[in-house]
Structure formats: C-alpha cells, structure tokens
Amino acid sequence: MHGVTRNSLIPRELRQQIRTGAIQGQTSGMAPGFVQANLAILPKDWADDFLAFCHVNPKSCPVIGMTQPGDPFLPLLGEEIDLRSDLPGYYVWENGVRVQETTDVSSLWRDDLVGFAIGCSFSFEHALMDAGIRLRHIEEGRNVAIFRSNIPCAPAGRFQGPMVVSMRSMTPADAIRAIQICTRFPNVHGAPVHFGDPAAIGIADLNKPDYGDVVEIRPGEVPVFWACGVTPQAVLQTSKPPFCITHAPGSMLITDLRISEISLF
Amino acid sequence: MHGVTRNSLIPRELRQQIRTGAIQGQTSGMAPGFVQANLAILPKDWADDFLAFCHVNPKSCPVIGMTQPGDPFLPLLGEEIDLRSDLPGYYVWENGVRVQETTDVSSLWRDDLVGFAIGCSFSFEHALMDAGIRLRHIEEGRNVAIFRSNIPCAPAGRFQGPMVVSMRSMTPADAIRAIQICTRFPNVHGAPVHFGDPAAIGIADLNKPDYGDVVEIRPGEVPVFWACGVTPQAVLQTSKPPFCITHAPGSMLITDLRISEISLF
After folding, report:
1. ipTM of the complex
2. What is one Pfam family matched by this protein (chains A, B) (predicted)?
C-alpha cells in the first residue's frame, strides 16, 4: 500500500482494489465517513415481494438503492459501482440453501436480476469513534458479532423471518451517546433495538455468533444490539426463493455517499 | 375538584391551589406538557458561585430562571409566580444542615436572596408516556426514586459534591426510545446518564432511595438514571452556605413554559 492505509483510500479506490481481489474479507473500519451497504439480489418475480418486505421492516432493511432488472449498476451510490464485482465476498443461494461463496458473481448474472443496496451499520461506526466511543472489533481488525434474534420481522408477500442483529459492547454511558448519534442515521439501521440481557431477544450465547466474529464483553460493559442487514439472509433461508445472491456478512459495498449526507439532523 | 382532575388544570390554577395549601406533596404527573423546576435560593454572596457551579454542571443543574437579589418573582416562567409560596414544599438549610420543612417561606425572605429555577425531569414524563412508555411511579401516584451517585460534579467556587440521580424502570426498548425523546430536552436534564448496574455509579441498594419513593423494577426491566435537580441539595450539604432554601424533593415549581417550547428539535 506504499504507506497509504486502507482507511485513507476513497471509496472508488477501495472498490477498484476489491474488484481486482487486492482487498478481500470484511470492510468494517474502511472508508470512514462513507456509507456501506448490504446486498440482496433477487429475480424480478421475487423482487416486488422483497421490496414490500423491506418497506415494512425499515429498521433492519433500509433500502438505499435498487437497480432495474438486469442492470448491475447503482450510479446514485457511486458512478461506476458494479454490484457483480465490487463487494469482497458474495453468498449464492438456491431454494434457501447457500450453494457457493465467491468474490465475483459476473458469471451468474441474469437479465431478470434486481439488486438491492441496504444500509449497513458500519456506516455510523466512524461517527461513534469520532465521539470517543471505542469499538473493539475495529481496534482488533475483526468483523462485528452478528446473531439471529427472536424478534419477528413484519411479514410481506412470501417473505418472513427473524431479525438479525449486530452487537457492539460498550459502557452504559457510551451506549446512551451511541443511541443519540445513531438516531441521526435511520437509513443505516439508526438507534439500537436492544441492550443488556441477550436472552430477552432469543440469543443463547454471546460467544457463539451466527455470523461474524466473537467480540469480548468486558466488566462494566453491556452488549448493545442493532438491527442488521444480514436479516434478508435469514429471511431468504425461510422463504426459499429458487435463486438469489447476497453479500457475505461483513463484506459490504462501500459507496460514495457520505454519512453526513444522510444524517437526519 | 368537581370532576376536574388535577392533571387537566393549567399551571396557574395549580399554583394558586398550591399557594393556598389545597394541593400538597409531590407534583409528578401534574400539568402534563408543562415544564417543572427545582428551586435553590441563596444569599447574593453565594449566588455567583452557585451560578458558576450550574454552568459547569448543565446536566444536573440546567438553570431555566434566575431572580434579581430580593426579588421572589420569575415572570418569564409564569406571570405571577412567587417563589416564596408557589411550591408545595420547601427545605430550609443552615450551614449545610436542614433545619425546617415548610410549605411557605415568605416569613424567611430577605433582600439579598437570589432564586434559581432548575429544570426538572418531571417535565418530559408526559412526552415519554405519550410515546407509550409506562412510568410506574406516576401510575402509582408516587414520587420517583432519587439517589446520591458517586459521579462527581465539576467543582466551582465553594461548591462541589456528587450528582444526584432520579431512577425510572423500563424495558431496554423503552429505554432506547426514552433516550431519543429526552435528548430533545437538555434544559430538563436531557438524556439519562446511566442505565443498568446501580453499583457502577455508587448506588448500593435500589430499595433504599436517598430521596423520593421506592419504585419497583420488574423482570425484563432495567433501571435508567437521569441527572436530577436535587443535586444542589447534596452539594449544599457539602459546601455549607450559612443559609439557603430549596424545594422539597418532588415538590416542584410548575411553570407556564410548555415542554414543546424548549424542545431542541
């Protein structure tokens, strides 16, 4: 990287390196101040139901971009964004079963596919750190811990399932400040949905995340849970569309949109 | 009351009944939507230090009104407000020791006394209930539970001491919403300062409040703590001015100011 850290690269340069495979893995902590997005790609005959599902579940599935059928580009989020190659990792699903993990889905593209970009909580992490809130997973270069909760999503069409949540551990005082800060960003999941007792939302063991990495909870800290854009993956497993593509958890689309552009106030 | 509940009386009528003694005790739940205030009255030669103390402790001591020396009126908070008689209960202090509890301090008034009205968290309780958050102490007609914490206030002049906090018990989801709502009202203590483990802020037993009433914490709930305008009383006990007057905890000044007028956004 010739003395340039990944964090100082602008989104376009990061996407170029992701496209070539020079950058792989999860994107937490990259491009601070820019919006990152989850991805769901569905055939047109499932896309309408999915949009309806997102509409009634804005906390977990805030849609910030959507393509026309067969169009893999999202110019409103970044001039040259190509959803087929610009994320570091993809999951391919058939009938609700994950059949492939890959770094490029160009060979799988079809004329009837519709891409959805869904706001990701990585987007506000820089704002939290800027307020002096330490985020252990970023300091340790890891992904957040992600869990399937027992909070039901509102069903829509053929889609239903549980809310998936991301967890960050912090002191109560930092959690209060984080709630205030994240309230400004509803398009990237906004304020948390829960803190404290994980069993209250159906999480049995914080040391066994369903996705992402284990994150330590130190004395004096509480786990704080945000609605997560991995929710569509849990829902797709239940609803079983014949074919779809998602991002691999933590491997997000880095957009040109600044977090300050989507701040509510 | 001839079919009129206290809650439907406007602030001026409530103050009139308080002045005559027809209404006594604590004011939580009265005049929903109007700002309530804590009271501190000090001799002029201590008032400057006290204002400095409030200035550096805006979370616990947000000054919303201040009189000229010898003047007991606060027309900006209510045309005919008389600080000597318009609160249901007063404490009188000498050298940091409480020497009297009374419902009228007119006979104690002096030409050098300066009155401070400090925003009270009762002011936002209606906004919380309006959002569907149940407040047990109001449903049970009691005062909030109030505790001396070990959070140090910033010292100023001759004043120093611990922050006093009020406690309300609610689910984590309601606490998150309460943090959002209260953030709009910094002049009446704003967002909480802590939630969860009471020992983390030096509270040994939630069943033994230092002021106010015991409030039950039910399964699935967490205690949520707000900075409280009783803080000056804890500070006065430490700093020992020769003479001062405060409200009795929970017996507040009900002002004509609407909570919507002081909302930050």
Report:
1. 0.89
2. D-Glu_cyclase
